[in-house]
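## retry 2 of 3
previous attempt timed out at serialization; input unchanged, resubmitting
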Amino acid sequence: MPPEKAASDEISPPSPTELAPGFLVAAPALADPNFAGSLVLMAEHHPEGALGFVVNRPGSITVADVLQGIDGGLRALAEARGRGRAPVLVGGPVQPERLWILFRPGPHAPEEGAVTVGAGVALGGSRELLEALVRAESPGPFTLLLGYAGWAPLQLEREVAAGAWVPMRLHEDLVFEVPLEQRWESAVRRLGLDPSGFMVGGGGASA
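## retry succeeded, writing output
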């Protein structure tokens, strides 16, 4: 199920729908290697398509690696504050070179160019935002991601109807606090399902 939607340079403020803001929890039967076992934060869902980010798949590079390509001084600062070793997540297969930032809104982060996804979660991608978060003494949690997941009009609705995904409301701690390797299982348990095996059919998910 290759994502088809391309993101523009500017993301638009999300309009609440049944799927965004929220999560998509991959069903065990979802075999696409880009999304198997994934937890996807849905940032946008509208008639033109949908935009989301896998939030439980670490990539092969770290925050320090990304910062080195931008400003060696920022890398040194991040490492001095213990943030350099954090993994950069694989947000999805579309535009894997594009950097995104998930962060908790606050006075430490400029709001220009960023949008609020849901309570306590915002999305941006500017260098100014990245520098502000790295330089702040107490920036709050933030996560860097490369790439995103996109869906063409009605594509996501068809995948949900086919049982590939279980929609779930937004939980901020699944973005910033629950360890990466536990996020999918934690989401499944919050749905009242057994991570060791459940099925999704036309009537919904069942253990």
